[in-house]
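haha ok so turns out i had the wrong file open the whole time. this is the CORRECT one, sorry everyone. sequence first:
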Amino acid sequence: DNTSGCTLEAQAFRANLEEFKKRGYSVLGVSRDSVKKHCNFRDKYELNFPLLSDEKETVCNLYGVMKEKSMYGKKYMGIERSTFIIDEKGILVKEYRNVKAASHVNDLLRDLQ
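then structure:
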């Protein structure tokens, strides 16, 4: 929450939520941030979809999004920005890995036509 990439992507999902709904999709955001941070982020940007807290990285590990990253020469574990399409039966039907925040929502909507 509150990083430039997360903010940009969350705002794009917010602006296009009705399009996703028209196509039969729900949007959920998941990160390691606490419920309190999610509530602040949601309220600050008037997000209209649920944000789920995965502080123990259970969901992150199940979906394999924890990756080694590097910033300014320091390595750390972080979340690879990803989207997963899950059908009404709970089956993973498509995944988008290492997506770009600026273009991802438009790319996703184009694919889901």
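The chain has a mean pLDDT of 96.
again sry for the mixup
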